[in-house]
Amino acid sequence: EYPDLGDEELYRRARVVTSAVIAKIHTIDWTVELLKTDTLLAAMRANWYGLLGKWFKDTFGHIGNDILGGIVGMKKSENHGVPYSLTEEFVSVYRLHPLLPDEFLIRDISSSTDDEESAVWICRLPMSGLIGSKGDKALSEIGFTKQMVSMGHQACGALELWNYPNWLREVVPQDPDGRDRPDLVDLPALEVFRDRERKVARYNDFRRQMLMIPISKWGDLTDDQEAIQVLTEVYGDQIEELDLLIGLMAERKIKGFAISETAFFIFLIMATRRLEADRFFTSHYGEETYTKKGLEWVDTTESLRQVIDRHYPEMTKKWMNSASAFSVWDAPPQSEKHVPLYLRIP
């Protein structure tokens, strides 16, 4: 499209376009699968498009404030007096390692049928063998298509207690030159340690700072009697000592939510802040920065499925039955709802 641009400028333009596509997919595709309710679907789309919706914004441009027209395309950024950044609290609630399995189920993609059920798993690979320098070699041998189809057909783990991947308890780190280091990393212990080291508030104080009701007994946190027994053994009756990460994993979930309500409060704030405080989504969101073709690329991309379909159309056609690439691929697509999104009762 732009043969006269030099390598450096092409790279910089492409980088900002790709970053915007990733942010958009994260906002209106990935997050709504993590928080699977109509309310969150409406909220995240309103973050990007505003309450007037995509058609109105595509047709008439950004009109009104961030509520009507969405955050993206506002005339100026809003950082609320704080330099653009992701907070330590956000880092703490974004510890989602229990989503990862201990084993990767490799699927057979050699079948010539169009039946999604033909993607049966043919072997189990320990995740520990798929990271680091040896992981690079193993994944290269598997190939991109088989990796994607295999991941797409394997459900992620639940964010709850006792579901942390065992292979992350003994991670082998590498030096910058790729050599294995002798000291193993116990990642779950390190995550708790980092929160304490950075003075991130413990669970109850964290909730108070978010204007949420703190717990006064273990039964306020969970109905799981085994969890209550273990929490009592570890913390005794010192409710205030409960570490944030442990509380997030033990907390009862809202129906449809993969994360806890406490984590959701931070997610909700940061999902908005990362857009409204970034000039590339506000004052600099236009053809001058993105180019006409680049802006069109962002505006017309709605999902990861669409991106995969662009590059590997045979993959989505044969293997992806779900509407979203972030669902399990052989799941049936959601039935069409005739009630407009903003009128659905939560």
TrEMBL record:
The keyword Plastid does not apply. PROSITE patterns: PEROXIDASE_3. GO terms for biological process: defense response; fatty acid metabolic process; response to oxidative stress. One of its GO terms (molecular function) is oxidoreductase activity, acting on single donors with incorporation of molecular oxygen, incorporation of two atoms of oxygen. It comes from the Eukaryota. The keyword Oxidoreductase applies. Keywords: Dioxygenase, Iron, Metal-binding, Oxidoreductase, Plant defense. InterPro entries: Haem_peroxidase_animal (IPR019791), Haem_peroxidase_sf (IPR010255), Haem_peroxidase_sf_animal (IPR037120), Oxylipin_biosynth_metab (IPR050783). This is Alpha-dioxygenase.
